[in-house]
Amino acid sequence: MATSFAPSAAPTVAPGSPGPAAGRRILSPWRRAVQLVLGLLAYTGSMAMLLHAGQGAMPWDVLSQGIVRTTGWSFGTTVALTSVVVLAAWVPLRQRPGIGTVANVVIIAVAIGPALALTERVAPSPGPVTGAALAVGGIVLNGVATAAYVGVRLGPGPRDGLLTGLVARTAWSVRAVKTGIEVAVVAAGWLLGGTLGWATVAYALGVGVVVQAAARRRWLVPDGLGARVPVRVPPAVAPPERTEREDRTRRRAREIARALDSFGGPGRTG
């Protein structure tokens, strides 16, 4: 059940057809900025819930936990440094960061410490029932937050960009690349002492379903992020330079769509 997250290029429609904006709401710049920040804060809160639950963290957080236990660094510092390393891998993959990419690194790195402290204050020493509730709530919140911050289309997070670049450069399937990344990350984190439990598996199997459901809510993603890309009817005559530009746009849209289809599959990354 994959959800296509292709960028919405303005389609060319046949004469007499409704315009591309018919029945659609366009996100204003302020709305996009606010939704990006709130989505990333909610994403950080979901990370804290899963970590504090002690039932198994998200795949990349398993690696972060292992690094924290090995080096003694703070969790925020570890998340920031890991993101920088992943961003460095974008260079040979020819990926371009956006405002959302930078915000992803900065907001999560700054907010994860306070989020963990708040979660520990609200639910100190969670037992099995409280831990399970925190884990399930964290998975649901993570899925909704993912749809919210990806929905504004201001740039993917470092790990999503890594996935996009590898898919584009290797021509391997999204699921093969995503599975390989997640398995390698979890294995490295577990060897370093990260927490691997049932919540890690539940996250991998369930978060994509939540993202797909949330992306279909027009109040959250009003420009149809979770919908199929409309069929484009090419104009009868188009200048050669316009045709070439449109072809490049369509190719790029297909690359991003293939990579971000992974949000509907197992193991969504931050």
Break the fold down into its secondary structure elements and pairings.
Blueprint: H1 29-53, H2 59-71, H3 75-88, H4 90-93, H5 99-122, H6 128-151, H7 158-170, H8 174-191, H9 198-215, H10 240-260
Describe the structure.
The protein has 270 residues and is mainly alpha-helical. The chain is built from ten helices and no strands. Helix 2 (59-71) runs parallel beside helix 8 (174-191). The protein is globular, with a radius of gyration of 19 Å.
What's the order of the H and E elements?
HHHHHHHHHH
The shape is globular
Give me the number of helical elements: 10
Secondary structure tally: strands: 0
Average pLDDT rating: 78
Low-confidence runs (pLDDT<50, min 5 residues)?
A: 1-23, 224-231, 262-270
- Main β sheet profile: none
Q: What structural class results from the helix and strand content?
A: mainly alpha
Rg for CA atoms: 19 Å
DSSP strand content = under 5%
Helix residue percentage: 55-70%
Tell me the distance between the termini: 20 Å
